[in-house]
Amino acid sequence: MTADRPDFGITQATPAHVEPVTTALAEAFFGGDLAPWLVPDHATRAKVYPMYFRIFAEYFLEHGRVDATADLNAVALWLPVDDHLWIKIPDYDVRLAKATGTAMARFAMLDMTQDAHHPTLQPHLYLAFLAVRPEQQGEGRGAALLNHGLDLADQARLPAYLEATGTRNQGLYHRHGFNLRDVVWIPGGPYLYPMWRPSGAPRTPRPPSP
Asked: Would residue 18 count as lying in a domain?
């Protein structure tokens, strides 16, 4: 650990951590860029998001890698991709319908848009979710998780890919060597901002606060 790169005790989460991982995801994205379109009503969203994000927490804990701060208030969900993205969640359509209800069509459209634009024939690490619970945001947990994951990517000489959900979080990713590939419209909804980072791309620390 250095002064500009605190590690927050980052460790790899296990299936036993499914509840706090789910909570971190649901709370972090509750006010996210896509939330007003996916589930406009706040009360409905509060019911949908924990069920929805548990689907991915379970899958990534079993089949990907989930990095977490020691307090489990921030998580990063990574998946190695070879030629094509392959996320095969048992009974996914049934679980998605149960979790999202009348909002299912929008969640399905998000899935289809992401799948259609995901890089192919280029082995890489996919950062599907980077989440910090709201009360801990702005303290460096997200950057610490990102640095940890990119250290592993660089050691494996692999590029990395993610979809930013808005312009405000692109700055964090850009400082870590990601560059915008394209701007993708979710039909009927907002935009996604796919970003790609070559292996070994330089990282720039955040400027100190005045």
From this structure: yes
| pTM of the full structure | 0.94
Alpha carbons 70 and 29: distance in angstroms, whole number: 20
- Whether 14 and 57 have beta carbons less than 8 Å apart is answered as no
* Alpha carbons 118 and 55: distance in angstroms, whole number: 20
User: For residue 68, what are the domain limits?
Assistant: 11-197
Condensed to tens digits (0 to 9), the pLDDT of residues 91-131 reads 999 999 999 999 999 999 999 999 999 999 999 999 999 99
In-domain check, residue 79: yes
pLDDT digits (tens, 9 = 90+) for 123-166: 999 999 999 999 999 999 999 999 999 999 999 999 999 999 99
The DSSP call for residue 5 is B
Domain total in the chain: 1
CA distances from residue 120 to 15, 37, 154 in whole angstroms, order as listed: 29, 28, 20
- Tell me whether residue 186 is in a domain: yes
Inside any domain, residue 162:
yes
